[in-house]
Amino acid sequence: MQMSVLFTISRNKDCSLTPPPSFLFFNLCRPQTTFQGNPKLCKIRGKFHGRQRRSHPTSIPSSPSCSSEILPPEFAEYVAVLPVYDDEESDECSVYDHTKVDARHFGREAKEFIRRYEPGDCTEGAGDAKAGDYVLPEITTLLLVGPRGAGKSTLVNQITRVFDKDDEPSAPDRAQVSGSSKSKGTVFLREYPFPRNSTAICIYDTQSLSSNPQKNFKTLQKWMTKGISHGEIATGKVNIVIFVVDGVSILQAIESNTKDYIDILRETFMYPFLSIGDDKPVVVVTHGDRLSILQRARVQNELVDLLGIPVQQIFDIPGSDDYQTDLAILDMLRYCIQHAEQNLPIKLSYLLEVRGRETSKIAAEQLMALDAVIEATIIFLGIAILLLRFSDKLLQS
Ligand SMILES: Nc1nc2c(ncn2[C@@H]2O[C@H](COP(=O)(O)OP(=O)(O)O)[C@@H](O)[C@H]2O)c(=O)[nH]1
Ligand SMILES: [Mg+2]
């Protein structure tokens, strides 16, 4: 038996939490609930991934970085030391243990990151720009979009529960889930800050998309351009869209070759107003608890091909209440926050200041060049005068 340094968790310059290597391993083996740390299950997913060569690096694309500030203790470098066994069987066992430990730490850090989050936390350091140079939202707004029954309201309750587990374990669900004969599901837009008392981040549950894409586009365009509001609460701009789809329906549609369902889904997902900057919506696949591991992997890979997004932008979040699902939720939220901040607009005053600085730099360079020309001319004239005087004297003598 030997001892080995296993992983570090640190806050990156771009404000992302670096999942420990074994969490990446775990994360790439989505769906998390059943894949966690099990190399055999990862191999199953690998089979599908052979086809999917365009998957992007797991790290978030470079975002405006968060400066070289001294990190708060909870983001401080963490090093765990655990035993590693030599034989192959023990290796698997140890990878599993390590993955569990890694995942637990990642989960804690990610939860703490969201609890402490303030709009602008991840913007500092892009060029000279500071958080104050961006147009910061009062509250960062995530918008849930998806077909009826996809699980949008269930997801709101799951997100709330992840934080309620620490704060208020017996608190009731907030969003109305459809399915019971009494409930019509979500009828109006509803705002849900999370954690419940947050003033920094909220998620909007929406009425479901209809089977008429044109009608959907009209509503979506209104929400995305004019902002959304809940009752009399001030209207807010959407910072990122989460597209929720039911994995079971997708699989059924693929297997029965039901093109209509898939086409509407794709068309709606690709609707330009749902993209913010270059970011297409984040995808959450629900109902994984009703599918096998192979089927879940297949749904994810089909979505990669269908929607043209990297697998890291697709989160498998089944309606289960367990630690691995909580991790998947936290990972998805962290991704949403980072991407929302990357697309914040820069203030006009900052742009003018930068333009002014550039203009005066160019003017100074031009002046210096002019200065050099004048100096050269003076020297040339001086030499010419001296030569003329000299030749004059020669002629006189
Ligand atoms: N088994 C399972 N059921 C789910 C899941 N997500 C949602 N549901 C169920 O699907 C139905 C519709 O969910 P709801 O959240 O109201 O969908 P919405 O119309 O998109 O808001 C409800 O009966 C939920 O309990 C999931 O991941 N797994
Ligand atoms: Mg609903």
Looking at how many chains there are and whether they match, the oligomeric state comes to single chain
Count helical runs.
11
How many domains, in number, for the residues?
Answer: 3
Give the name of the CATH superfamily of the largest domain. P-loop containing nucleotide triphosphate hydrolases
Mean pLDDT: 75
Uncertain ranges:
1-14, 18-89
CATH architecture of the largest domain: 3-Layer(aba) Sandwich
| SS strand fraction | 5-15%
Largest sheet: 6 strands, mixed
Give the overall silhouette. elongated
Assign a percent range to the helix content.
40-55%
Query: What's the end-to-end separation, in Å?
Result: 105 Å
What's the total number of strands? Answer: 8
Q: Give me the CATH fold name of the largest domain.
A: Rossmann fold
How are the strands of the biggest sheet laid out side by side?
A: 4-5-3-6-7-8
What is the SS-derived class?
alpha/beta
State the CATH class of the largest domain.
Alpha Beta
Element order: H for helix, E for strand: EHHHEHEHEEHEHHEHEHH
Features:
binds guanosine-5'-diphosphate, disordered N terminus, 3 domains, six-stranded mixed sheet, single chain, 397 residues, binds magnesium ion
